[in-house]
User: What shape does this take?
Amino acid sequence: MFRRLMDTLMGTSRIDPNDYAAQISPNRFRSLGYSLAGWIYMLRRQKNTRIMTIASIVVMALSLWLQIDRLELAIIILAITIVWLTEFLNAGIEAAVDLASPDFHPLAQVGKDVASAAVLLGVIASILVGILVLGPHVLERLNIIAAPT
Ligand SMILES: Nc1ncnc2c1ncn2[C@@H]1O[C@H](COP(=O)(O)OP(=O)(O)OP(=O)(O)O)[C@@H](O)[C@H]1O
Assistant: This one.
């Protein structure tokens, strides 16, 4: 039972476990190719990703300039990732909804609106994280607050 569940989760249910070559079949690389195609689609076709790219570079540059510690940097990277993740999922849901329901349908509207709400939530949370983590460092640099002793 547990074995079957693990096989399903790992996607190895149709692979002979004794056959190592089969486990590293080209399918793994093909999946990576599909993921990269998704990235390229997002960077080329979605106008929001251009804004997100610039914002991410600015925030990362600011974080490095402020010399925040490793934990803070990890939190900033996670916050940036949340925005990208929600935007990617939103674009995927939008495409699926457009395919399934090109005409107006209340459920299609719910699907798109909820996906878009997830993006908004991610953006708000990330802005708050940015303010909480970077805010004190910026104020310190500007000599508005004293550096912690
Ligand atoms: N098939 C549909 N049925 C019902 N409502 C829809 C449908 N398509 C879009 N909508 C409504 O229009 C809104 C905007 O949809 P749209 O597909 O234009 O997304 P968008 O947020 O403008 O994203 P993008 O600019 O990336 O295409 C949706 O949030 C939803 O409320």
